[in-house]
């Protein structure tokens, strides 16, 4: 990754995964890493990781009905999206390295 992008990327990662929130930093990191979560939360975060375009209002409503707060759903969504994006970024950079 070009050096000029490293500092902003590190700040983004730190903000999403380590700052204060309703989900613990450990849970947010696990979500970003694609680790298994309890029941509905795993199904939802896995969907965000793999098929974000398929996430619907019903998916988030299901979590809210199960007792998750709006803040928890938001933090889980952002953590999963960040993790998925970083996975794809690493794969793209690795592919570019092979081309050189």
Describe this structure in words.
With 100 residues, the chain is mainly alpha-helical. The protein is 76% helix and 0% strand. It contains five helices and no strands. Helix 2 crosses helix 5.
Summarize the model shown.
With 100 residues, this protein is mostly helical. It is 76% helix and 0% strand.
Task: Show the helix and strand layout.
Elements: H1 3-18, H2 25-32, H3 39-51, H4 57-65, H5 70-99
Helix pairs in contact: 2-5, 3-5
Structural class category: mainly alpha
* Mean pLDDT level: 92
Computed over alpha carbons, the radius of gyration is 15 Å
Q: Oligomerization state of this entry?
A: single chain
Descriptive labels:
100 residues; 5 helices; 76% helix; globular
């Amino acid at each position: 990754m070009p050096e000029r992008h490293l500092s902003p990327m590190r700040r983004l990662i730190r903000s999403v995964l380590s700052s204060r929130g309703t989900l613990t930093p450990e849970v947010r990191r696990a979500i970003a890493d694609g680790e298994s979560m309890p029941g509905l939360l795993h199904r939802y975060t896995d969907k965000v990781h793999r098929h974000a375009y398929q996430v619907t209002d019903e998916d988030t409503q299901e979590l809210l009905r199960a007792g998750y707060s709006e803040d928890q759903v938001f933090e889980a969504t952002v953590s999963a999206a960040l993790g998925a994006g970083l996975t794809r970024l690493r794969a793209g950079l690795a592919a570019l390295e092979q081309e050189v």
